[in-house]
Structure formats: C-alpha cells, structure tokens
Amino acid sequence: WDHFVSWVGKFHPMLVHFPIALLIAAATAELFTLLGIVLWAANAARFCILLGAPSAIVTALLGWSRASSGDFSTDLAQTVMLHRWFGVGVVVCTTLAAVSSELAWRRSSNPWRVQYRCLLFAGTALVAVTGHLGAVITHGPNYYTW
After folding, report:
1. How large is the angle between the packed helices 17-35 and 77-107, nearest 10 degrees?
2. How far is the C-alpha of 96 from the C-alpha of 59, rounded, in Å?
3. Rounded to whole angstroms, how far apart are CA atoms 56 and 20?
4. 108 in helix, strand or coil?
C-alpha cells in the first residue's frame, strides 16, 4: 500500500496545472462579469469552478501522497508542510465556492453569489501562494532571483 501511495503521488506535478488554470479562469471570468465587460462570462466562470473544485480535490490528494513519500530534504520540511495546508485551503475555498455558485445559480440569490465570489477570489489568492510554495519545493528558494 505504501508503495502504491508513493507511486500515485508522482502524478501530482503533472495534474496540478489543470485546477490552477481552471480556478484562475473562473476568477477572471467572474471579474469580467462583475465589471460588466463580458456578459456571458458568468457561465464560463461557473463551468470552470465546477470542474476546478473536484480537480483541486484530486490534485490535493495526490499532493499529500507525494509528500508522504519523504523524498524531500529536511530543509524543505517547513515549505512542504505550508504547501500542504495552503493546498487544503484551496480545496476548501473552491469546493465551497462551487457549492455557493450552484446555489446562487439555482435560486437566483444575491447572498449566495456574494459568498461565491468571495470564496472564489480567496481560493484564487491561495492558489497563487500554494503554487509559489510548490515552485520553491521543485526549483529551490532562489528560483525567482533576478
């Protein structure tokens, strides 16, 4: 079982870009909707969050499997731990955003829409932090040095 968990975790780096792109696209489309730039963008945002949330769950589970392999140096232990928990934050925010989006859509309810937008934008900010920590794990702390 341990060997399987370690092996399946190797798919995390490959699949992580899918929910990142979907969540950023959802936030961008929702921002366009808020600003009245593109009226059909609300449907695109809903589509992206409904695909992005479940893919974030799968990706986070794979990430936890990857981290459990212990293939990281001890100087990265703190970064791996932060990456894990920020990733959990992404999953929580995006899952709740997807539920709120559906409730707003089905009930034409403004309070649910406000909640959805807050969760979506918070989740997108968490994606940025989590992605940065993942880059530090993968490429080292000096990756962005000028």
Report:
1. 50
2. 17
3. 8
4. coil
Cβ–Cβ contacts within 10 Å for residue 98, how many? Answer: 24
Helix (H, G, I), strand (E, B) or coil at 72: coil
DSSP 37-69: S-TTHHHHHHHHHHHHHHHHHHHHHHHHHHHTT
Terminal CA-CA length for the chain: 43
What pTM was computed for the model? 0.90
Task: State pLDDT tens for residues 2-37.
Answer: 889 889 988 899 999 999 999 999 999 999 999 998
Number of neighbouring beta carbons within 10 Å of residue 50: 17
- Our CA angle for 21, 27, 33, nearest 5°, is 135
Q: How is residue 23 written in tokens? A: 């969540």
Task: Record the tokens describing residue 68, joined without a space.
Answer: 């459990």
What is d(CA 139, CA 87) in angstroms, rounded to the nearest whole number?
A: 18
Report the percentage of the chain scoring pLDDT > 90. Answer: 73
Task: Indicate the residue type of 85.
Answer: W
Q: Extract the tokens encoding 9.
A: 């975790």
Q: How far apart are CA 48 and CA 25, in angstroms?
A: 7
Per the listing, tokens 């794990």 go with 137
